[in-house]
From TrEMBL:
PANTHER family: PERILIPIN (PTHR14024), PERILIPIN-RELATED (PTHR14024:SF51). This is PLIN3 protein. InterPro entries: Perilipin. GO terms for cellular component: cytosol; lipid droplet. The keyword Cytoplasm does not apply. It comes from Motacilla alba (White wagtail). Belongs to the perilipin family.
Length: 113
């Protein structure tokens, strides 16, 4: 999970969503109230669940480690096949806009000639 979260594309997308969430909370007082309540409830449920789940996680640790290693290898292979993953979302969007703009210009040129 940490490796996926550290990918530039995922990280920058999370940053964009987080900024939009924070901006929405600041702009709308009612939404802020609902979100704050939801955040507190999720935090308390997470804390309560963590103590109950800890013994199970300790038992499963060898299996989780093996799955993590397997997932890391799969992620490395995926990164080789998808060169977009290590790039930030903003760069991908910018490159896509440039590509589309260039294609539209080519189509305009072809139509006009």
């Amino acid at each position: 999970v940490k490796e996926v979260a550290n990918l530039s594309l995922v990280s920058s997308a999370c940053d964009v969503v987080s900024a939009a969430y924070a901006s929405s909370k600041e702009s709308h007082p009612y939404l802020r109230s609902v979100c704050d309540t939801a955040e507190k409830r999720v935090q308390s449920v997470t804390e309560a669940t963590a103590s109950c789940v800890q013994p199970v996680l300790a038992t499963l640790e060898p299996h989780v480690a093996a799955a993590s290693e397997y997932a890391a290898k799969g992620l490395d292979k995926l990164g080789e096949k998808l060169p977009l993953l290590p790039r930030p979302a903003e760069q991908i969007l910018s490159d896509t806009k440039e590509l589309l703009s260039s294609r539209v210009a080519e189509v305009k040129e072809a139509v006009s000639s």
